Amino acid sequence: MIEHDGTIDEFLSRHADEVEEAVRKAAAQEIMPRWRRLAAHEIDQKTGPHDLVTDADREAERYLTEALGALLPGSVVVGEEAVHADPATYDAVRGEAPVWIVDPVDGTRQFVHGDTGFCTLVALAHRGTLLASWTYAPARDQCATAVRGRGALLDGERLFAGVPEPGRDLRIATSHPDFTTDEEKRVLRALDVPGVAPRPCGSAGLEYLAVARGELDGTVFGWEAAWDHAAGLLLVEEAGGTQLTVTGEPFRTAGGNALPFTAARDAATARRITALLSGKAA
Questions:
Q1: How many CB atoms lie within 10 A of CB 91?
Q2: pTM score of the predicted model
Q3: Residue 195: other Cβ atoms inside 10 A
């Protein structure tokens, strides 16, 4: 069992490349051979017609669960599909063991439709702190990585979120209408003001990457599932960005957050977005 974060830091120094290799292999073996080749029997619904799961999701998560657990003995894996099968599995996010948080195919709907806008997300956390993340978009051949305190990279090049261009509308990706309640839609309408240009999100992981690259000014999401957010939040933070809940507190991966929350290129943008969402904007 890993006993302290110093040991995990040493693990990351020695084995971060092996984690990336595992992520790439999972995509090469289980995801990309099925992309644009899915048969009807390989696609299922979970909670409804917009919430899809495929054999690629299941098999890639199975591959990563085995590979990541072997790389870091004593760690546990919390994957989206495992939690769907057994919700109690999610409790490990709040446990004492190092935890791998895995979304095997983030943007399954895009994947099913043959679009390139999907990715595999992996984050390593310990006692509520995000330590490292991997965001791999195999159809675009892009891999972004972040290690706490060491910055963020995209294909080996340093990422800087920067700040929004003065005088330009803020570009914000928000929770997609297909996955929001009427009340959540009402809250999001607070962003429909001059100077803000909201749009529905695609893959959450790729939206976070866009913020880290300075191509998107912020995100606003109204759900907490760790596999959708953990990797991207660390990526944004290590690129110089920030994140904030609607009550002004940091987002906690373990849950219990006031929603919605934002990840933004800089603190001023995050404060502006949360002020609008909470009705406190001047």
A1: 12
A2: 0.94
A3: 10
